[in-house]
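Propose amino acids for all 274 sites.
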C-alpha cells in the first residue's frame, strides 16, 4: 500500500493492524495508539504529517517503520506534504494582555480517558469565542488536527505543553486585538496632595509579587469592605488597564503616579471625595 504525508493513521491501521506497534515504537508520544479508546479518537483525524508534528519526529521515521509491513512511500509525496502547523514558542501578546476571566476553559481530559470524542463539545465552545476572549482546551496531547481545522476557520492558536500528559491549547479570532484603555493620570503633585488628604484613612496594598490575575482580584476584594471616605494605596508593577472599567462599575476613581519601570502607585477612592 502506498502512503503519503496526508494519509490518515486510521487508514494505515485498517490496512494492517500490526502498524499499531510499528508506529508506537517510533517514540513514547505514539504509545497512546495502544489504547483502543484513544486510537478511536485520534487515528481517524491524524495524518502522518500531523503525527510527525505531534511527536517531534520526521515523516521519514514513519515510512521506515512501516516499510517492513508492506507500506511504501508515494513518490510524489515530497511535493504534496502539507505545511505543518507551528506552535508559537512565546505566548502571543494577545493572550498576555487578556484578563484571566476572559479565557473560556474546556477540560476534555476525562472525555479522552473514557473514550468519548470531545469534538462536538469543543466546536460548541468555539462558537463563544470572539474578539476580547479566548478558548483554552485542556488536553493530554497537542490537538494538531483541531488546530488545522480552526486555522482554516480564521482562528489563531497557541500550544503550551506543561508536561507530556498535560497540554493547554488556546484559540482566538486571528484578527482579534485588545485596545488599551486611555488613562488620564493626575500629575505627581496632585497625587501627593490627594494621598495627604486621605492621611489616616488609607489602606496600603502591595500586589507586585502576585501573578495575574491575582492583583486585580485582590484589589477588588479589598474594595468590597472599604469604608466610606477611605482609600486604597496600591503599589503595582504597571498601570492595570483591565482594572479601570471594573473600578468605574463600582463608582470608584483612580489616581496614578509612576515611580519607575516596574513600580506604579495607585490611589483608589470612591467618587465622592472626603
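Proposal:
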Amino acid at each position: 500500500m502506498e502512503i503519503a504525508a496526508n494519509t490518515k493513521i486510521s487508514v494505515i491501521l485498517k490496512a494492517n493492524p500490526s502498524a499499531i506497534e510499528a508506529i508506537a515504537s517510533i517514540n513514547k508520544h505514539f504509545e497512546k495508539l495502544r489504547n483502543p479508546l484513544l486510537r478511536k479518537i485520534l487515528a481517524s483525524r491524524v495524518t502522518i504529517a500531523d503525527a510527525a508534528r505531534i511527536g517531534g519526529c520526521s515523516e521519514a521515521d514513519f515510512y521506515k517503520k512501516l516499510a517492513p509491513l508492506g507500506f511504501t512511500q508515494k513518490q510524489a509525496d515530497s511535493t504534496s506534504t502539507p505545511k505543518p502547523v507551528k506552535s508559537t514558542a512565546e505566548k502571543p501578546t494577545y493572550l498576555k494582555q487578556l484578563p484571566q476571566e476572559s479565557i473560556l476553559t474546556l477540560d476534555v481530559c476525562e472525555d479522552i480517558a473514557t473514550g468519548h470524542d470531545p469534538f462536538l463539545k469543543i466546536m460548541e465552545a468555539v462558537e463563544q469565542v470572539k474578539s476580547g476572549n479566548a478558548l483554552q482546551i485542556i488536553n493530554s496531547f497537542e490537538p494538531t488536527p483541531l488546530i488545522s481545522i480552526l486555522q482554516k476557520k480564521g482562528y489563531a492558536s497557541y500550544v503550551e505543553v506543561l508536561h507530556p500528559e498535560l497540554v493547554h491549547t488556546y484559540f482566538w479570532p486571528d484578527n482579534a486585538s485588545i485596545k488599551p484603555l486611555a488613562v488620564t493620570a493626575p500629575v505627581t503633585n496632585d497625587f501627593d496632595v490627594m494621598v495627604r488628604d486621605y492621611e489616616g484613612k488609607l489602606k496600603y496594598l502591595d500586589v507586585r509579587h502576585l501573578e495575574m490575575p491575582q492583583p486585580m482580584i485582590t484589589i477588588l476584594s479589598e474594595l468590597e469592605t472599604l469604608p466610606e471616605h477611605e482609600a486604597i494605596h496600591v503599589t503595582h508593577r504597571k498601570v492595570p488597564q483591565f482594572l479601570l472599567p471594573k473600578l468605574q462599575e463600582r463608582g470608584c476613581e483612580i489616581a496614578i503616579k509612576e515611580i519607575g519601570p516596574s513600580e506604579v502607585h495607585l490611589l483608589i477612592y470612591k467618587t465622592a471625595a472626603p
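Strands lie at 2-3, 72-73, 103-107, 134-139, 155-163, 166-173, 202-206, 231-236, 252-260, 263-270. The longest strand covers residues 155-163.
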